[in-house]
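Bumping my old thread because nobody answered last time. Still need a sequence for this structure:
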């Protein structure tokens, strides 16, 4: 279940805006310390896996930063999977302390 929280947390976050990998990592660290997210495994391998699955895609990287500092966006496939998860009765509020911060109904 931890892996699913990671996956759907990232999809929820990217459903609202494009994010740098380090911003996603910061969200993970914040959520872990506030008991909203229990998986503290490295986020970058998960982002690579989600990219390989076609759920997210890089839209660029910041010059001068490490290669993993890509900017990511959700793909149509990722949005479909996220909406299917929501339609199954899951609530983004279980992943984020303030659901309004991450308006998920786009």
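Sorry it took so long. Here it is:
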């Amino acid at each position: 279940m931890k892996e699913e929280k990671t996956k759907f947390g990232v999809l929820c976050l990217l459903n609202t805006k494009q994010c740098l990998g380090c911003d996603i990592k910061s969200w993970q660290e914040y959520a872990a310390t506030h008991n909203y997210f229990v998986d503290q495994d490295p986020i970058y391998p998960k982002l690579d896996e989600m990219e390989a699955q076609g759920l997210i895609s890089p839209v660029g990287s910041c010059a001068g930063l490490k290669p993993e500092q890509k900017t990511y966006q959700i793909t149509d496939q990722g949005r479909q999977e996220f909406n299917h998860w929501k339609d199954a009765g899951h609530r983004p509020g279980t992943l984020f302390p303030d659901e309004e911060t991450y308006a998920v109904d786009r």
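The longest helix spans residues 2-16. Let me know if any region looks off to you.
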